[in-house]
Amino acid sequence: MNDRVFLITGASTGIGAATARSAVEAGHRVALAARSLDRLEALAAELGGPERAIAVRCDVTEWEDQRALAERTLEAFGRIDVAFANAGFGAVRGFLNESPEHWRAMILTNVYGAALTARATIPALKESRGHLLFTGSVAGHVVVPGSIYATTKHAVGAMAEAARRDLHGTGVRVTLISPGNVDTPFFDNAPPIALRDEDVAAAVLYAVSQPDHVNVNEVLVRPTGQEI
Known about the structure:
The chain has 228 residues and is α/β, with parallel strands linked by helices. The chain is built from 6 helices and 9 strands; from the N terminus they run βαβαβαβαβαβββαβ.
C-alpha cells in the first residue's frame, strides 16, 4: 500500500483536495490536477513537495492536457496506482435557467472530462493493476426535476459500469463514489445537512484499501438526515 501513486483531477479544493490529504497521510504520493495552478502548488507544498506531491495544470476537457498529466505523473513517480476522475461542477436546476454555455462546459467537464481521465490513465493502471474511480452523486440515482447536473451524473454512473466491464480480466478495479450533499465549494451556500469533504475522502480510501480480490463497485454515502 505505501507509496502508491494517486492521480486526482479537481484536486485544488473540496473532495479532491481532501482526498489528496488523506492519501498522503496514508503514506501515498499524489499527482494533483486542476485548472488553478496556484492553489495546486500551495497544496503540493503543504503535502511535502515534489517527493510526495506534484501539481499539474490540467483542463480535463482537453485531451492533450490529460495526456500530459499522465505522462508528468509517470515521469515524477514511475507509476499510477489510482486515478480519481473527480473534476466537476453543477448548475441551477431548470431548463430555462443557466446559459447554454454553462451547460456545455458542465457536460464536457463532468462527462467528457471523466472519460478522458480514464483514457489517459488506463494503460498505466493496467501495468500496476490499479484502481479507477469516478465521482458520481446521489443525483445520479434519482430523477431530479430540471437538473442537467443530475443527468451528467447518471452518465458518469453508466461510464463507471462500462469501464468495469471493459477492464474485466485486467486486474484494474473500478469504483463509483456517489456522495449526497457535501459542504464544499461546489455550493454557493452550504446545504443545511451535509457531509464534509473528508467524509467522502474516507470513502475513497476505504475503496482503494481493500485487498486485491475485493472490488467495491460503488460507495453511496449520504449525510444522516438527507431524504433524497
